[in-house]
Design brief:
- It contains 12 helices and 9 strands.
- By secondary structure, the chain is an alpha/beta fold.
- It has a 6-stranded parallel sheet, with helices on both faces.
- The protein starts with a strand and ends with a helix.
Length: 291
């Protein structure tokens, strides 16, 4: 499948990598970029991530075959509202947001006449770096992309979005928006929240410089994702706060359990927890590496 005109709102790591992967696959003729920062768009143009910069949303989406909303979820409503009056009947719109229930709700609010051609999606890939300069055609190869199609969807629109992600080298899976948000609250949003919290805890102490000077690979690996975009993760956590709060409660119970074990100096219980966790992680890593 060949896309004639692809429009990307948010030409950063996610949107830019989507563009580069499709260009490398020969799946797109023209890529138009839209964004808030002129400097980033100029960089995207210089690097060949996009072919041109659109002056505004209206001119950008005119006669577009596919529109990708690769902006933080907090910006999604404004972008949807800006493009809604200008979408052609054949244009397919998709997104790359990390939460889906809120995006689906926003689509019903701002794209009511275009729901059949809107395909919510979430690429499970990322890095701490951001901006067009961080984009890579390799980012999605071997990665999962979750599509959460709505009942109103046109099957042809879903096939187009699936084909584009597969052209990027990704494996496409489907689930409901609610199931998506519950799963990723546990395995993505909670880890990010914890990593940010740990770094904030250390950084807020009076002897933070000394503590950071002794931090090594364990601290680096655990907190790597705390280098991610604060704006993006603020929006994700707020958008998925109901599911995330439930996961925090479950995690707090684990911390309380460990607190009791340490208080009682129960080495056998502590080793049991560590052994169970270590076995589970090694099994997951082995399965992941074999995929």
């Amino acid at each position: 499948m060949l896309i004639g005109k692809l429009v990307i709102f948010g030409v950063g790591l996610i949107g830019g990598s989507f563009a580069l992967a499709l260009r490398e696959a020969g799946a797109v003729r023209e890529i138009v970029g839209v964004g808030r920062t002129a400097g980033n768009l100029e960089e995207a143009l210089r690097l060949g991530v996009i072919d041109r910069v659109a002056a505004d949303a209206a001119s950008a989406v005119q006669d577009a075959d596919l529109v990708m909303l690769a902006v933080p979820v907090g910006q999604m409503a404004a972008v949807m509202a800006s493009i809604a009056p200008h979408l052609s009947a054949q244009t397919v719109v998709t997104d790359a947001g990390s939460t889906k229930c809120d995006v689906v709700a926003l689509a019903h609010q701002h794209l009511p006449g275009h729901l059949a051609r809107f395909v919510p999606a979430h690429p499970i890939a990322g890095a701490e770096k951001s901006g067009a300069a961080a984009a890579s055609a390799e980012l999605y190869r071997g990665r999962n992309v979750v599509i959460t199609p709505m009942p109103e969807i046109d099957p042809a629109a879903a096939r187009m979005v699936r084909a584009m992600w597969e052209a990027c080298g990704a494996t496409v899976r489907e689930m409901t928006p609610q199931a998506h948000d519950e799963v990723f609250a546990a395995v993505s949003h909670l880890p990010h929240l914890l990593a940010f919290a740990l770094v904030e805890d250390i950084a807020s102490r009076s002897n933070s410089e000394e503590l950071f000077s002794y931090a090594a690979s364990g601290f680096r690996d655990f907190t790597r994702i705390a280098g991610s975009s604060p704006e993006m993760w603020r929006d994700i956590c707020l958008a998925n706060r109901t599911a995330l709060l439930k996961e925090l409660e479950v995690y707090q119970a684990q911390l309380d359990r460990l607190h009791t074990i340490l208080e009682q100096a129960d080495g056998a219980a502590l080793e049991q927890v560590f052994s169970h966790a270590s076995t589970a992680r090694n099994k997951w890593l082995s399965q992941k590496n074999s995929d």
